[in-house]
Amino acid sequence: MRSTHFDRNCVCVLFATLLPALAAAGQQERPDYSKVFDKTDAMIPARDGIKLHTEIYSPKNAAEPLPIIFERTPYGLADDEKGYSRKLARYAEMIPEGYIFVFQDIRGRYGSEGKFVMQRPVRDPKDPKAVDEGTDTYDSIDWLVKNVPRNNGRVGLLGISYGG
């Protein structure tokens, strides 16, 4: 039977080896997204009149119309000291490819109006004023395609946890 003392020592050595690298990574400066994107704050109307807080990040000097990457969240947009969403860091590998990034607080959370309902039930399709996550998303995408300059009409919806 192998000693757990040896295993703990291996973990300690590994941690001690990685600690300086982890500390250095934490101290690296984040990119200045204000040099890469023009930011627009919008309150997008849903079909029942509630407005949803949305941040739109359009690449500066885009040469052609671009697709939109859209993320809706109940967790807030967590802007940095310059007012740019920290969520952009998640998409660091995609930024050079050319996308318009859009982040939105879902109904009733942070900057969005309305009442938040955890796992809101699917709406009654017979009621044209009924809303749910799907109608808010549909209404937002419709608004984005019609109102965001230099988009190509394509929208990809991404999310993790609740937003997924």
Distance between the terminal alpha carbons, to the nearest Å?
45 Å
Could you name the CATH class? Alpha Beta
Overall 3D shape: globular
Radius of gyration: 21 Å
Structural class determined from secondary elements: alpha/beta
User: How many domains comprise the coordinates?
Assistant: 1
Q: Order of SSEs, N→C?
A: HEEEEHE
Average pLDDT taken over every residue: 84
Largest sheet: 5 strands, mixed
CATH superfamily: Alpha/Beta hydrolase fold, catalytic domain
Write a short abstract of this structure:
The chain is of the alpha/beta class and 164 residues long. The protein contains 2 helices and 5 strands.
Structural write-up:
The chain is of the alpha/beta class and 164 residues long. It has a single domain (33-163), classed as Alpha/Beta hydrolase fold, catalytic domain (Rossmann fold, 3-Layer(aba) Sandwich), CATH 3.40.50. The protein contains 2 helices and 5 strands; from the N terminus they run αββββαβ. It has helices at residues 4-27, 133-147; strands spanning 37-45, 51-59, 66-73, 100-105, 151-158. It has a 5-stranded mixed sheet, with helices on one face. β1 and β2 (51-59) form a beta hairpin. The longest helix has 24 residues, at 4-27. The protein is globular, with a radius of gyration of 21 Å. It starts with a helix and ends in a 6-residue tail after the last strand. Residues 1-27 have low confidence and may be disordered.
